[in-house]
């Protein structure tokens, strides 16, 4: 299962999103007969790579916020 495929949110996977949508429009048999499975697998891997990159960036930001908060608390402890 993948998240909603908003074109503006997944620029790196846009080509795969469009290919999957076209495959689904091709008809019932293409969609449920497994002809779109390869595209869907590639899209899932692309979305996963995007998510992991976002996660890495967010972890870095969280570590920086924690470092600043710890420094602020240490400063308050020194002043007390």
Blueprint of the fold:
Layout lengths: L13 H12 L2 H5 L4 H43 L1
Helix pairs in contact: 1-3
**SSE-based structural type:** mainly alpha
Give the number of helices: 3
Roughly what fraction of the amino acids lie in strands? under 5%
* Low-confidence blocks of residues: none
DSSP summary, beta strand count: 0
Please describe what this structure looks like.
The chain contains three helices and no strands. Helix 1 packs antiparallel against helix 3. The mean pLDDT is 92.
Brief summary of the model shown:
Helices cover 75% and strands 0% of the residues. The protein is mainly alpha-helical. The model has no long low-confidence stretch (mean pLDDT 92).
List keywords for this structure.
80 residues; mainly alpha; rod-shaped
């Amino acid at each position: 299962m993948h998240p909603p495929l908003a074109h503006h949110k997944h620029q790196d996977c846009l080509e795969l999103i469009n290919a999957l949508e076209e495959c689904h429009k091709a008809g019932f048999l293409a969609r449920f007969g497994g002809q779109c499975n390869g595209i869907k697998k590639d899209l899932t891997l692309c979305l996963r790579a995007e998510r992991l990159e976002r996660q890495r960036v967010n972890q870095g930001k969280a570590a920086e916020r924690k470092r600043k908060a710890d420094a602020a608390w240490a400063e308050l402890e020194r002043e007390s």
